Amino acid sequence: MTGAIRLPSGAEGKPLQGWRVLVPRGGPWGDSVAASLRARGASPIIAPMINFAPTDDQPALEAALRRLAEGAFDWVTVTSATTVDVLSSYNAVIPSTTKVAAVGETTAAALVAAGYRADIVPSEENSARGLLEEWEAATEGQKGLRVLALRSAIAKQVLSVGLARIGHHVEAVVAYRTVGVPVAQKVVDDVRAGNVHAVLVTSGSVAEQVQEQLGPIPETTLVAAIGPQTQKDAAKVGLRVDVVAEERSAESLIDAVVHAALASA
């Protein structure tokens, strides 16, 4: 980012005072992030850029969620905040006897915000691969677990295939398809005019929509990615990334924006 934006004086307690920050997701996650931004003095702009469309095999998903509610699974794996949106839209019930594995802190935060819980979150790499690497230690080496693996239509089946290889009974079900959501023209105009100080990028799908709908992003606008994989995905679609969160969580993403703001003050 060049031409750094100056913070107003007296912003010590509110490091993002005067900053307008684009939040590219709605729902409980977007509301939570917006609240955290406001606490730091920012003015969040919630502009959902992706949404989920029904899976092509709706009966299979509905049947799996019914069995989930009945306690047919020992574990359910949730690989994205969008999967949480799907669970919420179906009023899905996760019984206390079923444990929940979230691939990262963003997904875990979305689960909690929606009234669910996360029993396992990878401590090292917040990804399907990271969850797989820590699975045996987290489950104390149990074998033959019944696992419901919910995923998007475009996701690689790293987790479900990996769990099956180490002896678990995995039912992999497509929960949704990801689709872009057109943002309001005012948001487009504000970003292109440089009136938005920072844009949060939370996934490769979001990066694609940011570049397609809002790009090229002005050099004076900070682009913050939630993790290295999102940064790589952004690069593939030609989106510049200025800062990357140290941890794959919403709070860490906001902290990265705060640090950049303080550095530019």
TrEMBL record:
Pathway: Porphyrin-containing compound metabolism; protoporphyrin-IX biosynthesis; coproporphyrinogen-III from 5-aminolevulinate: step 3/4. It comes from Agromyces sp. G08B096. One of its GO terms (biological process) is protoporphyrinogen IX biosynthetic process. Gene3D superfamilies: 3.40.50.10090. It catalyses: hydroxymethylbilane = uroporphyrinogen III + H2O. This is Uroporphyrinogen-III synthase. It is an enzyme of class 4 (lyase). It comes from the Bacteria. Belongs to the uroporphyrinogen-III synthase family. Keywords: Lyase, Porphyrin biosynthesis. It holds the Pfam family HEM4. The keyword Cell inner membrane does not apply. The lineage of its organism: Bacteria, Bacillati, Actinomycetota, Actinomycetes, Micrococcales. Catalyzes cyclization of the linear tetrapyrrole, hydroxymethylbilane, to the macrocyclic uroporphyrinogen III. Its EC number is 4.2.1.75. The keyword Lyase applies.
